[in-house]
Every structure is written in C-alpha cells, then in structure tokens.
Amino acid sequence: MPFNYVILGTGRQGVAIAYDLAKNCEAASVTLADVNPEAANNASSRLTKLLPSATCQFIPVKCDVANSNDVANAIKGADVVVSAVPYRFNVELTDAAIAAGTSSCDLGGNTGIVREQLRRDKAAVSAGVSIIPDCGLAPGLGNHLAAHGIASLDEPEHVHIRCGGLPEKPVGPLGYKLLFNIEGLINEYSGHGEFLRDGRLAKIQTLTEIEEIEFPLPIGKCEAAVTSGGTSTCPDTYLGRLRTYDYKTIRYPGHFAIMRAMMELGFFKDEVKLRDGTTFNPGVISRWLLEDRLDFPDVRDIVLLRVTVEGRHQGRERTLQYDLCDRHDEKTGFSAMERTTGFPTALVAYMQARGLTTPGARPLEVAVPAKQFFDELPLHDINVNVQIKD
After folding, report:
1. pLDDT tens digits, the chain, 390 residues: what are they?
2. Alpha carbon of 26 to those of 18, 323, 373: distances in Å?
3. Which of 129, 289, 338, 342 could be stapled to 334 by a disulfide with Cβ–Cβ 3.0 to 4.6 Å?
4. What is the SS3 string spanning 133-176?
5. 120 and 231, same domain (yes or no)
6. Would you give the distance in Å from CA 178 to the centre of its chain?
7. Which pTM does this prediction carry?
8. Is residue 70 domain-shared with residue 150, that is, in the same domain?
9. What DSSP designation does 307 have?
10. Could you tell me if 149 and 272 lie in one domain?
C-alpha cells in the first residue's frame, strides 16, 4: 500500500529523509515543505534526478512552520509527517499532527521539549496516531541499538553510547567540520547530560569526563565527552532495570578543551555587560564565526557510533558491541551525517505508516519494535557490525 509523507524542512537532513522515503518506504508522494519555496523546489529537482525511475511524486510547497494554517494545509491527508526543522517548533507541530489525524516523528534534540510532546499521549491515543520524537542519529539510532541490545540480554546492566560526526581528518582550529545546525551543536555542548549512574538518575555537566576512545586506522585515537540530549528519555524508561545508561560525543583530541574554554569565557552568552555599562551579544558573533570558519565544503565527513550493552545472558556475562562507521556517499552526494540521521528517521516513519507502532505519544525506545527496526536497517543502507563477547 503506497503512503503519503510530508517533510517539514528541506535542509540537509530533510532531503535525506525524503530520499529514503521515496526509495525504500512505499511512498506514493513526498511533500517537501519549506518556508523558502526555492529550497523546496531545489530539493524536488535534486530528488527527481537521484531517483529518475521512482513512481513517487515529489510535491514542493511553501510552509512556514510558525504559521498554524500553513502547517495544517501542508500535512492534510498525510499518513506520516516528519519534522526536520529546529526542535523549538516540535511541540506545536505535534499538536498540529494530532489535530490532523496524522502520525509524526522528528529529529528532536532537546529532552525537555520531548517530554512536553509526550504529555500529548492521551490526545494522540484518542486521535489514533503515533507520535515519536528524537528519531535521528543521537538521539535516535544510538538509542535504537541500545534498545536492541537490552532486549537481547536476560539481565542487561550497563549501556554506553559514543557517537560523533567528524571530518575524515582533523581540519581547522577545532579539528572539526560543522555538519548540522549551529544551534543544535551549541545545545549539545550546554547544560547537562541525563544519565543513569549506579541505578539512579544523574545530571552530569557537559564537556566533562573526557575519555580516550580508539577506532581502526586511519581514524585512530579520538576523545569522547559528556554532551546533552543524546540519551533522550532512556534513563527514565530504564530506571529500575539498568545500572548505567550514558552518552558521550566523539571528537578528535583537543577539541573539547577549546570548546569548554570558550563556553566558560562566555563566548556563547546572549548578553554580556561591559564595565562602562553597555551590553552586547557575543553569542551572535561566535555562532557566525563558527558557521563561517568550520564550513570546509570540500572535506568529506564520517560518522562513528559505538553502543556497548553489558549484562548477563543464559547465566553468563555477555557484552554486545554495535559499531557503525559511515562515510560520505559520492554517488548520491549525501554526507555521512545526512545518511545516518535521515535514513533511520525515514525507517521510523515507514514503521508508523505500516501501523507497526501503537497510537500514542511515546518514547522511541518504547514505541518502535527494536528487533524489526534493527533487521530492516540494512535495507536503508545503514550497516551496523555487532560483536558478541562472552
């Protein structure tokens, strides 16, 4: 049965989601909705060239997600709507999806906003729709793999997720290439990571607890530090069942020391008061400089994801290690970050369209059938290596 999908936001990840929906998710139509009509038209043209034999219809439309009438018109009649716009819009978009009677998922990134979306559970059940936030890479794919590992052990105890998008080689002053919205990056580096430690909920300051992590050459040694949002609601979900659930972001060595110094010095504050009483916004300048100086359009990216689940199975200690190393796809032009964020999100939307998720506003780790999701990942060109260590 063909399905009608709507993508809100035709930026980097939105186009990748649309591509996978059209190619692998029985799409009759994919509506490409963006506040910038030129961006929506360009996305439609690109996808038509990438998938010349697709029977799916690409429909570009102008839609300002801050305008409720625009949103209602764009998502009318859709089977599933996918939000690929900044997370600050997702509560209102959840309400719009429920009112329209359409299931929805999103890229998320802010756990506080996700919790607000989940408060719509009763309304979503009444509407007969499925609402699933935080479906991208991290949060998203990392938590999918953790859920699969937890379900595969009789007595799971510890989960460690390490994930990062990097240039193929260190580049620039931070050894880093900006791979997604700058606001999302600063959000990750701010606040606290929400973890399980010794079976209890814990908040850990971001950019701390730096550890060394190593990957096969040519990548080699990297570092990982606490960032916010990566665990999403999993610590709440697994409270009382696991002793540990934590997440750290991967970067090349030296990156976090510089970023922590910048954060502590106030480079990203919205307002600073000078001695003469005047105020200014250093965050605007810092964000602009990062976007400008960390672009590196000719540098290809990689995504590294390692999920470790430890516990006991059939009376013996067992560790499951899930490893993903994804690279820029020269054939399609999609970056590793676009692929690993967009394609798993498309798979969630496809499962919603097929009725494999029950009505309600529920966390990814509860709503999505972990085994079936994992088994279908290779069909969406996401290939995870699993090692079992007894």
Report:
1. 799 999 999 998 999 999 999 999 999 999 999 999 999 999 999 999 999 988 899 999 999 999 999 999 999 999 999 999 999 999 999 999 999 999 999 999 889 999 999 999 999 999 999 999 999 999 999 999 999 999 999 999 999 999 999 999 999 999 999 887 788 888 899 999 999 999 999 999 999 999 999 998 889 999 999 999 999 999 999 999 999 999 999 999 999 999 999 999 999 998 888 888 889 898 899 999 998 899 898 999 999 999 999 999 999 999 999 999 999 999 999 999 999 999 999 999 999 999 999 999 999 999 999 999 999 999 999 999 999 998
2. 12, 28, 16
3. 338
4. CCCEECCEHHHHHHHHHHHHCCEEEEEEEEEEEEECCCCCCCCC
5. no
6. 15
7. 0.94
8. no
9. E
10. yes
Q: Are residues 228 and 259 in the same domain?
A: yes
Q: Note down the domain range covering 12.
A: 3-135+341-380
Same domain flag for 170 and 313: yes
Q: Which of 35, 190, 144 is nearest to 371 (CA)?
A: 144
Q: Name residue 303's beta-bridge partners.
A: 165, 326
What sign results for the dihedral spanned by CA atoms 224, 227, 232, 236? Answer: positive
Q: What is the pLDDT of residues 314-345, one digit of tens each?
A: 999 999 999 999 999 999 999 999 999 999 99
Pair (351, 333) in one structural domain: no
Q: Alpha carbon 231 to chain centroid distance?
A: 11
303 and 324 Cβ atoms separated by less than 8 Å:
yes
Q: What is the CATH number of the domain that holds 304?
A: 3.30.360.10
Compute the distance between CA of residue 51 and CA of residue 213 in angstroms, rounded to an integer. 39
Rounded Cα gap, residues 20 and 96, in angstroms: 24
Separation of first and last alpha carbons in the chain = 43
Spatial separation of the C-alpha atoms in residues 323 and 249, rounded to whole Å: 15
Total of domains in the chain: 2
**Do 331 and 192 share a structural domain?**
yes
Distance CA 173, CA 175 (A): 6
Residue 229 and residue 193 in one domain = yes
CATH number for the domain including 90?
Answer: 3.40.50.720
Secondary structure (DSSP) of 233-249: THHHHTBTTBSEEEEEE
